[in-house]
Specification:
Chain lengths: 112, 116
């Protein structure tokens, strides 16, 4: 799986959009970008994933650059409960039978 | 979404004892489950892959005789930490993939193990 690079921490004001970047310059053609988050002392939670098109669900939006070397996770209206460590993971679509490789992620802190 | 549970959520044991942690998929079947370990202020590290009806596969550096894994049914995997020592104190988390659509993985809530 391709390696990812994320900033170690970010702050965002409550109610604002939180934009979390991820670099994955070695991504290959069959690899998807997945985002998970981990709230303190809980198991990780799936957020969203995408291949090359932008994606949106009830939790977030995922913007992937045209060259697929980077992406941005957008939480449109951040709340205090969005404070967590966010992990960007690149893996192939057929990788369901493989465990995930977690990097250090971005610790997002939502400020009141 | 699918639900994965773990039991117990928290356990404290004496050094030298063995501790069993259960991971259950509550509303779907999982032929494969994964076990992770997370030390304070660190990321999750994959320990092993639990395979229903066959032996688990362990990541490099993980002692298979110390971390016994049994995947006895399509909804249950257990991790037994044998002869636990204080350095085994950690947050243990399991996950199971849906193997449908997006290959999303569902994680359990984790088990906090403290070895005295």
């Amino acid at each position: 799986d391709a390696k990812t690079t994320q900033p170690p921490s970010m702050d965002c004001a409550e109610g604002r959009a939180a934009n979390l970047p991820c670099n994955h310059s070695t991504i290959s053609g069959n690899e998807y970008v997945y985002w998970y988050r981990q709230i303190h002392s809980q198991g990780p939670q799936y957020i969203i994933h995408g291949l090359k098109n932008n994606e949106t669900n009830e939790m977030a939006s995922l913007i992937i650059t045209e060259d697929r070397k980077s992406s941005t996770l957008i939480l449109p209206h951040a709340t205090l409960r969005d404070t967590a460590v966010y992990y960007c993971i690149v893996r192939s679509s057929g990788g369901g039978a493989d465990g995930l490789t977690f990097g250090k992620g971005t610790h997002l802190i939502i400020q009141p | 979404g699918a639900v994965v549970s773990q039991h117990p959520s928290r356990v404290i044991c004496k050094s030298g004892t063995s501790v069993k942690i259960e991971c259950r998929s509550l509303d779907f079947q999982a032929t494969t489950m994964f076990w992770y370990r997370q030390f304070p202020k660190q990321s999750l590290m994959l320990m092993a892959t639990s395979n229903e009806g066959s032996k688990a596969t362990y990541e490099q550096g993980v002692e298979k005789d110390k971390f016994l894994i049994n995947h006895a049914s399509l909804t249950l995997s257990t991790l037994t930490v044998t002869s636990a020592h204080p350095e085994d104190s950690s947050f243990y988390i399991c996950s199971a993939p849906t193997l449908q659509g997006n290959n999303e993985q569902f994680f359990g809530p984790g088990t906090r193990l403290t070895v005295l």
